[in-house]
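Hey team,

Filing this mostly as a record. A colleague (T.K.) asked me to run one chain through the structure pipeline before their review meeting, and I want the input and output archived in the tracker in case anyone asks later how it was produced. No errors, nothing strange. Just documentation.

Input sequence:
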Amino acid sequence: MKKIISYILVFILISCQTISNEKDNTTMSIATKSSNKKRILFVTSNAHFYGDSDIESTNHFPEIIFAYEEFIKEGFQVDFVSPNGGEIAVGYIYSSDTITKKYLYDASFMDKLQHTKSPIQIDYTNYAAVYYTGGGSAMFTVPESKEIKEISMNIYEKNNGIISAICHGTAGIIDLQKEDGSFLISSKNITGFPDVFENKKASYYQEFPFSIQEKAIENGGVFKFSKDGWDNYYLQDDRIITGQDPTSASIVAKKVIETIRNQTIY
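Output structure:
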């Protein structure tokens, strides 16, 4: 009789341990997925010049830091990727601005810009959203990067993630294609830096591979913009969020965060 009772007790203990392990595994799985929800990938450009010219170009520092600030405040982690990895050029730096000063003298942050990740270092399963930063450099190296495109579309389609862009950063998303071959922006409301604010006669513009506005329309996008400009204009169409110019960086980041939090864990 004692042996039977012992066997029963052992069986109960093993069953309890199995259930406990299953719960632990489930908890770990949920925790892992939750942590994925807390990571954002910033796409930057390696270009230091406008095309083949000797006109210097840069990534737009305020468009990086004002979005970065919003994500960090809300507990998100941010990684930086560029087509070639390594150092990127930054500009449009207004050192009198408080937030600019904060990051300009943050050695750890600036080190991330000195050592951006290369596409091969990126595991798309870790990210809930992509944010394409702007500046003149965004017109080069990023739009033609097959590796960046693949990462972004995997985040969008396989992670149920978000694609976002600011100003000239929109140049990086207008050629993105879904698995069925259709353009991501087809029939979607998007914005970016419009032609009306470009100096088309300037030397820098002559180096552009395309007009963001024209290419967006060509690929089926519904391109809209604020004629006033510099007024925080942005558009959200489902999981695509775009801002017109630098003033939209914060609001685009906030809308990305809001959309992530409204989603269920994938």
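Quick notes for T.K.: The first strand starts at residue 39 and ends at 43. The beta strands are 39-43, 59-60, 77-81, 90-91, 129-132, 162-166, 189-190, 222-223, 234-237, 240-243.
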